Amino acid sequence: QKEVEQNSGPLSVPEGAIASLNCTYSDRVSQSFFWYRQYSGKSPELIMSIYSNGDKEDGRFTAQLNKASQYVSLLIRDSQPSDSATYLCAVNMDNNDMRFGAGTRLTVKP
Amino acid sequence: EAGVVQSPRYKIIEKKQPVAFWCNPISGHNTLYWYRQNLGQGPELLIRYENEEAVDDSQLPKDRFSAERLKGVDSTLKIQPAELGDSAVYLCASSSRDSLYEQYFGPGTRLTVT
Q1: Residue in A46, A92, A100 closest to B43 by CB
Q2: DSSP code of A18?
Q3: Is B39 exposed, middle or buried (0-12, 13-18, 19+ CB in 10 A)?
Q4: CB-facing half-sphere around the CA of B2: CA atoms within 13 A
Q5: Nearest 5°: phi and psi at A82?
Q6: In chain A, which residues have their Cβ closer than 8 Å to the Cβ of B43?
Q7: What is A39-81 written as a DSSP string?
Q8: Which of A6, A75, A97, B99 is the most buried (most CB within 10 A)?
Q9: Do A28 and A70 form a contact (C-beta atoms < 8 A)?
Q10: Which of A43, A48, A49, A88 is best to mutate for the B interface (most B CBs within 10 A)?
């Protein structure tokens, strides 16, 4: 079982819709969770971090964490074509090393 | 505040040749990471430094890869000799305890081995 799993996509949504990205992880003691956005040919850019159960909102982005289910998600409201990118879920494992999922490719169609 | 700096940005070498990548982390970040990212995959950790100490190099192919972080600031990752399968993007990231280990990435070095 992979340590961090994401649907590879591609996920396609129309402009203005809500994009929902999901991630599961295997290490029950993980405490820190991150979402990175990566444009083609660029390096990952941190967009959200979440450390406790529940929702965390930042502008159009909402991260949701459920440690009991070992599940973390990212919602993007009012999706824009500029949101088209690969979204990487990252989990800080028990030994303080970060493990990344393979990423979900999101396309927002005008 | 300057971000993570990496050089070179691109490198093309023939197999069996050596190559080195350099990274300068964000000022004050004591933790430095080297990752390798293959196309369509997430970054894979190669080595993590806490100050000048390599605390996790379990994923580093030690027969051909080496790394150092002298004085706990800049770091160099070396491959010798390079193989075709080493073609990838090599990413450096840094973090600090004060920022709850949020990692910030440099632009990466795209290595092509021919």
Answers
A1: A100
A2: P
A3: exposed
A4: 9
A5: -70, -10
A6: 44, 88, 100
A7: -TTS--EEEEEE-SSEEEEETTEEEEEETTTTEEEEEESS--G
A8: A6
A9: yes
A10: A43
| Structure confidence at residue B97 as a pLDDT band (50, 70, 90) | confident
For A49-65, write each residue's pLDDT tens digit.
999 999 999 999 999 99
Span B44-92, pLDDT tens digits: 999 999 999 998 888 899 899 999 998 889 999 999 999 999 999 999 9
Q: Are A35 and A89 in contact (CB under 8 A)?
A: yes
Two structure tokens written together for B46:
């190669």
B64 vs B15: CA distance, rounded Å:
12
Give CA angle at A108 (A17, B43), nearest 5°: 115
Beta-strand relationship, A54-58 and B5-7: unpaired
